[in-house]
User: Fold this.
Amino acid sequence: MIFGLPFNLFWLVAWIVISSGCMALANRVEEHRKKKRGNTI
Amino acid sequence: MTPSFTAVSVILFIVIVGSVVGFRAGAGRKMNLEEWSVAGRSFGLLFMWLLMAGEIYTTFAFLGASGWAYSRGGPALYIMAYITLGYVVSFYVLPFIWGLGRRHGLQTQSDFFEKRYQSKGLALFVSLIGVLFVIPYLQIQLVGLGIIVQVASFDQIPRATSMLIAVCIVALFVFFGGMRAVAWVSVIKDFLMILAAVSIGIYVPVHYFGGVGPLFHSLAATHPAHLVMPGATKTMGHAWFISTVVLSACGFYMWPHTFGAAFTAKSGHILRRNAIVTPLYTISLAFIFIAGFAAVLLVPGLSNGDMSLLMLARKSFPAWFLGVIGGAGALTAMVPAAIIILTASTLFAKNVYRPLFAPQMAEDKVARLAKTMVLVLALTSFYLALHSSTTLVALLLLGYAGVTQFFPGVVLGLFWPRVTTTGVISGLVAGLATVASLMLSHHDPFRGLNAGFIALCLNFLVTATVSFSTCAQENPLPLSDAE
Assistant:
């Protein structure tokens, strides 16, 4: 148990947050790349 | 005042408030097909979030997830995994679909297939398959509504009556309000759903067990196999879990209504930001699962697991709060039901009826026909829901197995210029035939894997092989058009 949750449930909740963080990072990199190229979607 | 009267009155009040908000949203706007079906492509981040949360967090998430946590155990957690991964797929795919939609005036999934593969036959086939597999999804919402009113009325109101009332309200506010009405009702629905999920998921474990940790300790002690794979099932092991997550994540935006919602955005950026923010909403599902697991100990022996969350609420809360939870559940069924009916009726009128019977039909006449189809579809789904006996999650898995077969055609169509029309048609037919044969012969899961996943792999293989063995063709929707 972690924070009162079974490990599998905790793992999935943790990855929800991590996935959002990863996409936010990917979005920043992508926007930076597009700004450099002077192009937008 | 009896508890049944109090709970049903609160539900009715919430449904009426939701409907009034929906009706007002559509008032004063000129309702052409573009405004009615994709809200004039005008939604910003907040409305996109509301619309997408509205169509994804349905009564399936509310009653179905807790129902499977109750009746199946560990395998139910696939829901949290696939929703999160589905957003990752959408992050990379939807902005391109939106860009092409804006450039080429696409409104539906079939429009995409028709323009990309220059085939009216393929577009017609995609529309028919889309409408066919969206029906189980619509059934989920109506069956869910029936359960809500039945439990909240302490079995005083029959399920069929409550479903009929709900179908009429849904059809009316889609008819008069369109997509904008649906997004506005989502405001109330999302607020109430989070309130209900958090209330049950926190109050129940604290009240009965002294916290979430002690709840799971009790569950592990009394039902040691329930929280691990394959839970209370015999066939849903790790291979099933992984294959179902991959299948559902790929199919997340392949439903005609979720695909079509991408066209309502103001820009591709909005869709990316939506994919970043919306997964956080999925955390509320953890509370729903906690309620489902708590119900195993507190309301054991239910013949229908989908009733577990509401039976738990009925046992734990006063009647008025059961009404609030029931009202939240009713809106989580009505909002997606409205979106599905709206999209399916547009698909039928624009991509099935017009090309087949009236190629010269003007847009305003298509819009009028689509509105008539709202009533036809609503009543058809009501009839099917009346005769449904399967669980909510099983209905959803059936739909996913079907609509995910569009995934190769969409993704390869976007990113692989060598894909050909014959390749996509062959792959689609092979995938759908595999799904049908495995499911109808009761071979799902097949060798531990989800039948839809096996069909998807075969679909990709056939699409690639046939595309390589047929002449290359021009790509009328190059990615540069989406930028």
User: Anything to note?
Assistant: Residues 29 and 35 of chain A are 10 Å apart (CA to CA). The helical segments of chain A are 7-37. The first helix of chain A runs from residue 7 to 37. The mean pLDDT of chain A is 89.
